[in-house]
Amino acid sequence: MDPVPALREPLRQPLKSVLGPATAKVMAEHLGLHTVGDLLHHYPRRYEERGQLTHLADLPMDEHVTVVAQVADARLHTFASAKAPRGKGQRLEVTITDGSGRLQLVFFGNGVHKPHKDLLPGTRAMFAGKVSVFNRKLQLAHPAYELLRGDAEETVESWAGALIPLYPATAKLESWKIGKAIQTVLPTAQEAVDPLPDSLRAGRGLISLPEALLKIHRPHTRADIEDARARLKWDEAFVLQVALARRRHAETQLPAVPRRPGADGLLAAFDDRLPFTLTEGQRKVSREIFDDLATDHPMHRLLQGEVGSGKTLVALRAMLAVVDAGGQAAMLAPTEVLAQQHHRSVTEMMGELAEDGLLGGAEHGTKVVLLTGSMGAAARRQALLDLATGEAGIVIGTHALIEDKVRFHDLGLVVVDEQHRFGVEQRDALRGKGKQPPHLLVMTATPIPRTVAMTVFGDLETSVLDQLPAGRSPIASHVVPAADKPHFLARAWERVREEVEAGHQAYVVCPRIGDEDESAKKKGGPPEEGADKRPPLAVLEVAEQLAKGPLSGLTVEVLHGRMQPDDKDAVMRRFAAGDTDVLVATTVIEVGVNVPNATAMVIMDADRFGVSQLHQLRGRVGRGSAPGLCLLVTEMPEASPARQRLAAVAATLDGFELSRIDLEQRREGDVLGQAQSGARSSLRVLAVIEDEEIIAEARAEAAALVAADPALTGLPGLRTALDALLDEEREQYLEKG
Length: 737
Description:
CATH 2.40.50.140; 4 domains; 21 strands; disordered N terminus; ATP-binding; helicase; DNA repair; hydrolase; 3'-5' DNA helicase activity
């Protein structure tokens, strides 16, 4: 344990002891806020000035909004209805304005009496509700509202000073209710323990944490907000970077066996076999990896490279170097399809070098085994035996490698493919199988902006492969607006036929399999603005329609994640052999599938995929000498954000550029799927793209601080903040487990 206890933090007090159990329950259930600190760190989304009215002109559809506006007009209509046949049904229509636009509010039935009294023309109020469309006009039905009078104790002005903070809210908890709760706990902010060292704060002219919390919730001027945000960004960046720096420091304290390849061993024999020369990028990255492998503490490196940049080759050379030095190497893949694909491509690249112990095997060879959950008992027993005895130098597998039963003779290197699909704990479980901690190489084909690499992957050193090997062809990408221009979709299928007639093959990707029950369909994620409510297109249905219709006469097969592993493998083998013209699949083909003869890809409902995912999928074509074609089919209207996202993907093949766009659009949302730390969930004001400079500076400060004082002896406040961050991470692991 670290020698310094964390300070007792008043902000850790549970909300129910301050706000009462009912309010605390709603806050926990709907906003995930449990303590006084959680609530104080629930910052306003934006601020309204009391004298200034909001823009109603650009309200987002289907979102819960809070607006400040003035009542222009209120009319009560009486009508007959099934419930009130004598004409006693009532509807109150209120028009509010802000100078930029008008918005209709509507109240029905028994809910009209209070607003009818309150919402008189000229009244100003805050309104909260979900924006919907009725008779082609935007409206809020039954919005909650809070009157803005200058006198009453309860009004927003009494707790907001000159600026009204608007909080991220939900239907059950309006912005002003959150504001009032924050008012109640704000005095506790004075006792907030400051995590930043005094010298760092003074050197950068940052205000104290209590002052920052006060100014972000009760600013008097815009400058107050800027001061508060500047300070809170540093907190987030610095505490996170200290956590990562300590993790890196702990890694350097672990012992590892240095692994240096022999001059004329397996690696040299493999390099002699290669029918091409390595790119300069591959040589440079290999040098970085070999230097790390030669040290006596574990390598901890992230290898990122575009789809097709040759990461697998670089990783294989690292594995061969370790086998040369007497160790074993394990490659962990996120899916069975990908594990089988890697096993196939590794054994093909190695040729007779992968046949050690077999007749005709090479003198320098080693056995390469596959280990997945669905293997037959006999094959599995043999694989486990080969690993335990050291007969197998290389194993490629899925989560099955992490199981307790798996024993290694001398595990020297772990290669993790598509790291963002594995948590730190899974990674550590595999690393615990070595006599000493093995070296670790993490690969991803999702290009990661530098700042994300510094936050989410901040405990790893980074190598980038940014050159594509010679022989890769350009890919043309186009958006196909199926709703506006149905003849474009017909032309897309003609293009697929043309590619097949030219001797090539095609993929059609759909977001859903099609054999789910109704409840699963309903879970397909919230439809985006303007989306129709139909379920996403399904592989099984689309394949049937294509085979009978526009692609009749061609060989069409399906591939999806719920097929038996042997069936999946058989489908992939037939496609790779050229026996199948068109493969209709889910995103199981997203990573690792390599069929150089496949030149066309049609992605149905493309708007339902993320930017990075579309880029990954597109990387499956153009892998041979013929140019690739990727068609993004969508029913979304031209002005929608979804269409703009697709246009961005069609406009560039640069994965790093797209990863920036992706991050800007999702903000710090789910950038890398289930990332392996609580990093993002703890980022509230730090914007990973805009604040690159702060993150880089915080990383340098954190590294220097941890190098000088790894136990943070003199900084109890920082220890407290770290404990809170790491608790959050541990909680996330437990949820995922």
